[in-house]
Amino acid sequence: MATFYDTHVHLADRVFEADLEAVLERARSAGVTRMVVVATDFDDSRRCIELAERYPELFAVVGWHPNEAARAPEDLRPVLRELAQHPKVVALGETGMDAFRLPADPARREPVLQLQERLFRQHLEVAAETGLGCVIHQRAIFDRTLAVYVDYAPHVRGVFHCFAETPVHLDRVLATGAIVSFTGLVTFRNGQAVRETVAATPPASFMLETDAPYLAPEPHRGRRCEPAHLVETAKVIAAVKQLTLEELSHHTCRVAERFFPKLQAGA
Question: How far apart are CA 17 and CA 25, in angstroms?
């Protein structure tokens, strides 16, 4: 059986509280041997760390999601520095920018984006200090998100998660030295554009993720996503890339181990 790493999953979400043990067992049975549990705020970050302490195959990413910026502390850096010291914290995030649900009126929109950008930069500053990578979220604001990251790219590893942009956008990300990760979007019937980007992505430049509980791949679309579903995404990407599942496993797990070195140390 080919084995895979789910490099972005929200297992600290309350929707997994009732059956987390069963979720993890299904992941193991499906060959998902490492899972990176990603936070959305500091309470969530601490839950991610607790899960990583409890289960050897789990690792934590700590930080503050841009959609939660309005309730964030003014300065995230002291707590980020503290959390980053934990041996199972493998990156900071998810951080970045999101304009998808913002009002069209620039007078109302721009203050929110400025706040998101300030918090994004704080994550990147601490990542540069600590040597950790950053898990980057961007939605409906690619150019500005990338421009912020470029300022730190020489010193911070970045992954643009849930990547669904065009091959042209992909080239711009890869030119910074960052990588991307793909979700179940590639399996959707209307996902041809994402599959074209997958086809254009070098094997050494992408990872796999579920973003569970969101974006369940076919044939699970519309239901809660979980790490075991990563295999459905892997099957489609392997077909697009004309690779066997074992070859895709080799490439994507090695990329993940380079981006999150502690995954390899924890093997």
Answer: 14
